[in-house]
Amino acid sequence: MPKLQIIIASTRPGRVGPAIGTWVAEQAAAHGGFEVELVDLAEVNLPMFDEPSHPRLGNYSHDHTVRWAAAVAAADAFVFVMPEYNHSFTAPLKNAIDFLSAEWRHKPVGFVSYGGMAAGTRAVQALKPVLAALDMVPVTQAVSIAMVGQKISSDGQLEPDAAMDTAAKLMLDELARWTTALAALRTG
Amino acid sequence: MPKLQIIIASTRPGRVGPAIGTWVAEQAAAHGGFEVELVDLAEVNLPMFDEPSHPRLGNYSHDHTVRWAAAVAAADAFVFVMPEYNHSFTAPLKNAIDFLSAEWRHKPVGFVSYGGMAAGTRAVQALKPVLAALDMVPVTQAVSIAMVGQKISSDGQLEPDAAMDTAAKLMLDELARWTTALAALRTG
Q1: Which of A8, A131, A178, B153 is the most exposed place for a label (fewest CB within 10 A)?
Q2: What CATH number is associated with residue B147?
Q3: Could you list the residue range(s) of the whole structural domain that residue B153 is in?
Q4: Residue A188 forms contact with B (CB below 8 Å)
Q5: What percentage of chain A has pLDDT greater than the value 70?
Q6: For residue B70, is it left (φ>0), alpha (ψ between -120 and 50) or beta?
């Protein structure tokens, strides 16, 4: 089975990212089309980009880069679980992306974004040109969680509604289709 | 005189940002309309955003945030000296912006971008919605340095051409006009 990596893109104390990432991982496991891995950028704990060579060369000089490259290379598809800071993506997510190059190439990405009235969607739109630069494919079917604070229980769990469950299923189906389609480019 | 802060937005080993920032600082000093300060994000050395409260509250819990807030609050206008990573802005720049809120508000920003054929301009465009979210004003007159590797001398200095000098002058003139215009909002 292809490997789906679910990446939690916020790292600040008090974030809701892990609650949402856990729900996405459960949905993906129930979907059945993927081997599922949950990756928390707070645990990956990369420094600010510190490689002297361009990532396109794959000439990594730090152990943290070699480890991150191996983790991303092992995945066939991604879901980014992402909030919106100042109408765009978070620095930890951009930093984790910029560290690598070929490891991302020709792989699809689904988005589970969250926020206030805009549901984090401006961050998703801001990220699409970045993904295009890496020859990644953004999947249109997304989960967009508005007013996320009202959807977290007192014990810190996400309380999904039926629309979110349906949107996750559509996103995972489309990720599976793209994963198959892009495999030809990755071996070609 | 208003204070112009020139912020070097890349931090990686081997970057050309300091060479370009030094040239911008010289141009700004020669312009005469500003007190000029050069700020290197590699020296500021912020961690990934780690404040538990939203920056809008100004309720900072870390010394590094308090120091950065004081530095930005003291400035009246900015020039971002910025490369483009994967067609967008760098993580260190987004991180430094996201740490604060009111300290940026109602201040103008000029751009000196650099890169290959696109001269870093896609990163500038990606940043404009972020600046809008903070009620900052991006100045249209910019310095866009294409094929920057060919403009750095063997001893690591920027070798500007006449077009760059002219563009810098126009940018600084417009920054001065916006700084005056926005002062009314900041005291109002």
Answers
A1: B153
A2: 3.40.50.360
A3: 3-187
A4: no
A5: 99
A6: alpha
